[in-house]
Structures are given as structure tokens and as C-alpha cells.
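Objective 1.3, modelling of assemblies. Example input:
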Amino acid sequence: MHAIVIDDSRAMRMILRRLLGQLGFEVVDAEDGRAALELLSGMDPVPALALVDWNMPAMNGLEFITAAREDPRLHEMTMVMVTTESEQGQVARAIAAGAHAYVLKPFTTEAMIEKLALLGLVLTGAKR
Amino acid sequence: MSDHVTPTADNLRQIAEQVWAAYLDPEGVRPLLVGESRQAASAVSASVSLTGAWYGHVVVTCSSVAARHAAAAFLAMAADEVSDEDLTDVMGELANIVGGNVKSMLPAATAISLPHVVAGAGNRFPTTRQICELFGTWLDEPFSISMWQGRELAEVPAA
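Predicted structure (C-alpha cells):
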């Protein structure tokens, strides 16, 4: 299964790549939404999962999710917002735009695995 | 009236505990020990600015040794493998995470900047005052998180 990590923080991309790799994903990454859309346009198959930061230069996570939802090629991609934006209004905006789930930073490995298990992307009880 | 609260050192402590549990000490064996202020011989300072409905800065400062250990823990590598880029990225991300969580306590129309990391002397923020600070040691090295609030723009005298 393929996944894409979209975050302007190289450190966070490394953490998420490592975590997803341990769960068996083949992972690519991008440093903002615009770079992610360019990368995805050339990918076949499309990743099953996108972990998306909110605050990024060029194109932020909300703009990326909105654009991805308008692309029929990306309709099957599960998108999880991974961010420090915890206000209820922000969560609601992300879900309304098309995010399937929301994970707050800082997150533990266990919390991320639990979220991905709820989405049916990893087996329950997967270990780091 | 806004229903936001002014962040306190206790809020910073709670955020720090989450950061340590998630990234710097997931095994729970190397906690941040909150205590007295201690000056680092050499320091790394990472900050994010908050603007809009609230104006100020969140600053994470530690010794260069602690920063190297933080990068090693964050990136799951040995401390002697940590590059300057790793160190800068991780310190910036720590400031971003702490700042983002602080932002959730502030008025909704507050925006957060990209992180800024400096080595050597700490960040300085003219026309601000410190509103809270969390001091501690991590791996016997000084570590602090502080918040600085700016005066309203109207209060800042013209140059």
C-alpha cells in the first residue's frame, strides 16, 4: 500500500515516513500541497493514504484537501490532517473540505496507529 | 468578550509533557525535569510568532547538547549522526508544535508563523514582555520554553 506525507517540516516528514514504513507502507513525501499535487499527478497507483499538515507555505493542507477532492483520480485516497490546529472550527473546516480524520500534534505512535486502524488502513494491534 | 485564557507556565508544562511523551521520551525514562533556571554555555533557540488577534512569540531554548539529543530522539538516530540541518529542523518543529498548541488557547483569529531557529545568543523580541516560562533540565542540560506578549501596535512608539 502506498502513502504520501505532506508537511513542510523535514523532521516531521522523517518521523511519519518512518512510522508508515514500519507499518508496511511505501511512502513518498512533499513539502507543501502544491508539490504534493504535482507528485500525485504522476503516481500510479495513487496512494491509499495522505497525511497532511495544515500550515505550509505555497499551498496549505486545507487547500490541498479541497483540490484533491476535486480530482477524480484522488477520490479513493484517504486524507488525514495532522496538525496542531485544534480549534473545533478548524476541525470542522477540514472535515467539510474532505479530510477523513484528524490527528493532533504532538501524537504518539500508538495514537497514529489507532487512527489508521479506525480508517481500516492498518490492522488493529499493529506495533511500531 | 473573548473567552480565551492567558497561557501559564503550567500550560507550557502540560504541552511539554505531551511533546516528551510523543517524541523525546516515548519510553518515559528521560523526562524533562522542571526546576531552577540555568544558563546554557551554548544555546540554540527556536521560536514561532503569533499574530492577528494576539501578538507574541513562543520560544524554545536549550543547550546545543540538548538540541542534539532532541534531534537524535526525534529522528531516531544516534546523537553523533545528527547534522546541523537535523538539529535546526527538529528545534523548529518543537517550537512549531508548542506554539501551535499554545495558539489553540488564544483567540481564533491568531495565526502562527513558520519557525525561526538561531544558534548562540537567544532570540530577542523588542516591545514584548515575558508572560510565562517553563524551566527545566533534560539529560542534565538546560531547557526552557517561554512566551512573550507584544504590546498592541498602537502602544509601540514610532521610530
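Helices of chain B lie at 9-24, 64-75, 84-103.
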